[in-house]
Amino acid sequence: MSPRRASTSPLSDVGLPPEHAESEAAVLGCALNEGRAFVVAVAAQLQPEDFYLDGHRVIFETMIRLADRGQPIDQWTVTADLQQHGHLSAVGGASALALLVEGGVLSIPENAPGYIAAIREARAKREGIALASSLTEHLRNGHRLSDLAGQTDALAAMLHGATACDPAPTITVRRRHRPDRVASARRADHARSRPRYVRRPSRRCAHRAP
Question: Which residue from 32, 127, 172, 196 has the highest number of Cβ atoms inside 10 Å of its Cβ?
């Protein structure tokens, strides 16, 4: 849907960096369907920089901006804000928002902690690869390990944080009732195809007295 961010790190030399675009789309789709309360809960666990795709990052930034202003969040308000700031074409246009909404219907808001964990893990892997590649490049250029103590400590801290058994984030969402669109459409088609019978009032024959 959206172009990837241009990389200035050695990541470009080791193939495609880790990403979880499906989880990103699931979070954004749920947010467009569930509204502001969901965005506020997710924003406590995710940052725009956690998103790999440019379009997803811009959309999430827009949602946070609307939430901070206390405005409602749905497909139309996000589209309008993106257009106002000149970012609508950068995220793929209004059709990209429509696809996220459609995908959000199939996603489960209660599973958001799993989506968030996948997004954060992918970002940690990208940063770990970038840092390790930077260390490798410095060592190849003749730097001593003592000169790179800060970077090695940062890499060790990142690995420790990625492997720590922290409890999954909890997001409480009051699910709004959304009718099944497919089932509703089928019921409507069935109702239109059924023949309509008009019940005529019965005529009672007048009996003459003998």
Answer: 32
Q: What is the rounded CA–CA span in Å between residue 195 and residue 130?
A: 67
The residue that leads in pLDDT, 127 or 61, is 61
CATH architecture of 10-163: Orthogonal Bundle (1.10)
Q: Tell me which amino acid residue 91 is.
A: V
Indicate whether this model's pTM tops 0.70: no
Looking at every residue in the chain, the average pLDDT score rounds to 77
Instruction: Spell out the residues 6+ positions from residue 41 whose beta carbon is closer than 8 angstroms to its own.
Output: 112, 171, 172, 173
Helix (H), strand (E) counts: the chain: 8, 0
> For the stretch 20-30, what's the b/e string if a residue is b when 16 or more beta carbons lie within 10 angstroms of its beta carbon?
bbebbbbbbbb
